[in-house]
# Entry
Amino acid sequence: MNQRQIAFNILYKTISDESYSNLLMRKELNQLEPIQRAFVTNLVNGVLRKYELLEYQYKKEINEKTSLSNRIILNMALFERFYLKEKDYVVNNEYVELAENRYDKSFINAILHKINAFEQSVGNVDSCLPEWIYRLLKAQYDDETFDKIIQMYQSIPTIYYRLNKLRCSYEDLKHLDIKVINEDSFSSENNLLKTKEYEKGFFYIQDLNSASLYKHLQLQKKDSLLDVCSAPGSKLFNCLDVIKPENGYANDVNGNRVDLIKKMAKKLGYEGIHYLNQDGRELKNVLDKKFDKILLDAPCSGLGVIGRKPDLKFHIKPESLDELQILQKELLNSMDPLLKQGGILLYSTCTLNKKENEKQISLFLQENPQYHLLEEEILINSSGDAFYYATIKKE
# Structure
């Protein structure tokens, strides 16, 4: 099976809502050489990221009966031609061959011959967002912030690494050609996941904004901490730079994810963490203790990470936002019995939807006068992910 066929299969299953592209690539790319894997990854992510703009190029030539398969083939062909600068005859030959039958092959060939220039558009098409997401964010943010969000979506995200201070210092990594961002995070032009230092747990992947959240918990060494929705565990590991592992509780509703946290904790050298596999809303019925600090990184729509995970825009539906908001509210309200008086709760999401963020916290504070807001902020980084956080204190 050739590279383009593999890329097509991944895209079709992703866009038809059967699976997520990262899971499919992890499974499919093992059969390819490194240079082929890089090509398929670039092609898949590029088409997902630019999908609306690519489709705009031939929109006048199709109708509602045009199959998803043919739309994907056209998008792939146009991405290769205009973004990867592949020769026209190569693109035409390769993608006509991908079509299923004689009619489809003629259809693909005819449209590709008609498109000689790449047309830029405006609004949600130019921003490469489904219209409903574009309108949602446009209505919630001022023009300057909205432009920053669009820039973030259109940028290829930087891979950031978080230093494991339990195992090493920056001095131990200087030979890897790293760029130190701050005391916790660094980046590199090279892929560090194949290095012996990564295998030894000297560092792990974590976005810059995500790695900064723990600072807002005002942690003290003696503090006990509950991480309610912990997987993959990186935010808890950040906290273990301050508190003792035996004072950390990692919970996740998914048992397989709990196992992944355990595996990573062992690799990083954190021993003594307490693990739980519960619905966060039921923890108050399971745990017979109160915590100094609670970290609730809530399930959310993920609108802050579309730049890194462009397939999310095909999986998020408008109707799912209401369900998420109900879950977020229930999780927040379930934390009160678990938090000590004077304790701090950090609520965070990786979405930009204010109904899941500021409005969620505002409603909680109205209904729970024993809490007050310490700080809240939306973190937008053009080379990484967007996060919202709020810290609230129980009086």
About this structure: Residues 318-334 form the longest helix (17 residues). The longest strand covers residues 339-349.
